[in-house]
Specification:
By secondary structure, the protein is mostly helical. The protein is built from 15 helices and no strands.
Length: 382
């Protein structure tokens, strides 16, 4: 329903601009899904967005809004670049694993600062993470100007600021070639790592004690505290997990696309991850499909500029409409479901009262446990 609303609203905009909606949407789908190359580009675009959205969703489940994914992945690229250039003596597979671990540690360290400030001083994480983003930008600039500065440049020539080229053994392999995808798409094995991360986050949130405590804290901190949950410890753990996921966001561009850390690195992936997380309703599995859909729209920008007169800004408008429609329709459906389950619980209570404490012969309505009531009202605003 949300997608239909967004497509309809977009169609009205296209008609108002004087173009045919069928032709515009067909060109977007053809550019993104009509060939192996198109699919490869879409999945490559989706890879860092999955990591970024998961980082946002993990904190959001605990009632935290981590705006600092942007800065966390920038710092992680610095620590990963340092590992690449310092640990080149390691065998290829071990080097790649060491670099990924270094990236996750960099993201965790940067996320730990606002997490500790939140727990110890009550400083709001939105303010502290935004400030940390600005510091991270300057930290990257300092790193590629001084300790990690390019040392192999030809003498007397001006080159872009960057690090030295990473060893070939430390780069992530391209698997798109096995399916006829052009190497320019840079479809790497990191896509499968992103899928695995989404599955692990789903398991963490839905099947572990920490996940249950996180959802309890996010739904009602007072009730969680009364139930024996350590709110501060839970929030700090969520920040660390979020930082580790954020640390993997930039690996696609430095280990698959570039092979070094450049000055003109891709920015705003962390902020885009917020939009993708909302689009997937903070569900790890939904985030995978939301990131792929975002990749389809991003790839469609190229088709719009080539095959129609519709400006590329239409894609940005369509993304905004899509997020709004998803959030609104999902919340309406969730609140209706919560109200229905609470009504069932009320009916069950009335039937229990009418049967009496010692009367087991009468009909009994469907019972609802405390956990089911929590699941029904979680995040619904009830």
């Amino acid at each position: 329903a949300s997608l239909a609303i967004a497509v309809l609203a977009g169609s009205l905009l296209i008609v108002a601009y004087g173009e045919n909606p069928l032709e515009v949407y067909s060109s977007i789908l053809d550019a993104s899904m009509g060939s192996a190359d198109g699919i490869g580009y879409v999945l490559a675009i989706a890879t860092p967005l999955i990591f970024a959205a998961l980082a946002v969703a993990v904190c959001f489940k605990g009632g935290l809004f981590n705006i600092g994914v942007e800065g966390q992945y920038l710092v992680a690229m610095v620590t990963a670049a340092w590992a690449e250039l310092s640990l080149g003596f390691l065998p290829g597979p071990i080097l790649v694993v060491a670099v990924l671990i270094a990236a996750m540690l960099g993201g965790m360290i940067w996320a730990a600062v606002p997490g500790i400030l939140k727990v110890k001083t009550g400083a709001h994480e939105v303010v502290t993470t935004i400030m940390m983003n600005g510091i991270a930008v300057s930290l990257v600039a300092w790193a590629i100007n001084f300790p990690l500065k390019f040392t192999e440049a030809p003498e007397g020539q001006n080159v872009d600021l960057r690090t030295d080229q990473f060893p070939d053994e430390g780069l992530v392999g391209d698997f798109g070639q096995y399916f006829g995808v052009t190497p320019g798409a840079h479809l790497s094995w990191l896509f499968f790592l992103a899928i695995a991360a989404a599955i692990l986050v789903w398991f963490l949130i839905r099947r572990t004690r920490l996940g249950y405590e996180a959802r309890a804290v996010g739904s009602s901190p007072g009730s969680a505290k009364a139930g024996g949950v350590s709110i501060g410890a839970t929030q700090l753990r969520l920040f660390l997990i979020s930082g580790a996921l954020a640390g993997l966001v930039g690996m696609q561009q430095i280990l698959a696309d570039r092979g070094h850390l450049p000055q003109n690195y891709v920015v705003a992936l962390g902020f885009t991850g917020i939009a993708v997380a909302f689009l997937g309703q903070n569900n790890p599995i939904g985030i995978i499909f939301a990131a792929i859909l975002w990749g389809v729209l991003s790839r469609g920008e190229v088709a719009l500029q080539i095959q129609s007169e519709v400006p590329r800004e239409f894609i940005i408008i369509l993304q905004g409409i899509l997020i709004l429609s998803v959030v609104i329709t999902y919340q309406i459906a969730k609140r209706r479901l919560a109200a229905r389950q609470l009504q069932r619980a009320g009916v069950a209570g009335e039937l229990d009262d009418s049967a009496g404490p010692d009367d087991d012969a009468g009909p009994r309505g469907p019972e609802i446990t405390g956990r089911e009531a929590f699941e029904a009202t979680e995040g619904s605003g009830t």
